Amino acid sequence: MRVLGAFGLLVTWVTLGEAWWIFTSNDRAVYPHAEVTDSCLQMARNGSCGFYSCLESRFPCSPHSFALEHGQRYCHRFEQHLADFTPNGREWVIAAKKCQTRFLLERYQHDVANCHTLNRVGWDRMSDCYLWEGFCRISWENKDALWQVFQARDLLHTTRIWRELLQLTRSCSGYNIHRFLEWVMNKINYLRG
Questions:
Q1: 43 φ, ψ to 5°?
Q2: What is the C-alpha R_g of the chain?
Q3: Which residues sit opposite 29 in a β-bridge?
Q4: Distance of CA 154 to the CA centre of its chain
Q5: Other C-beta atoms within 10 Å of 137: how many?
Q6: CA 145 to CA 153: how far, in whole Å?
Q7: Type and span of the H or E element at 29
Q8: Is the whole-model pTM more than 0.70?
Q9: Is the confidence at residue 140, as pLDDT, over 50?
């Protein structure tokens, strides 16, 4: 029952956080500050974390940049904890990273960008890539590794991560995703005391 109460609180928190993000988002056109380079194109095709710096250099969207605050951060964390994943989990990490950077490659090559759109597309493609590459299949057996990547302070600080986790949960019915979400909620309740 405690998990269900925490889940209801989580849904409310995510909804309010999303409303805040929408009204404070950076909805402005940004023109390129850097040229498209072959090395950045290759990083995107390979799923390299360095591509996110290329995207931010070309279209600076800080301080609320998906590229640096989320894309690059989680990309590096996945690399840092790659050995903690099962063999199937490692294949998933590599495929999901490539999927994300390849989707953002098109945006990188545009002549103008909108920071709000870059953020939205970045988050949307993150979820899509996780699903398409098999998150539902690998999440339970890799829950400890995923916990290391999506650290507790992120889960308590960034409501967008919760929105994506809830979306993944809805999309993964029939898998161990409900056990995974309950496990995450129990970990957070434990941390909260």
A1: -60, -40
A2: 17
A3: 114
A4: 11
A5: 16
A6: 15
A7: strand 29-30
A8: yes
A9: yes
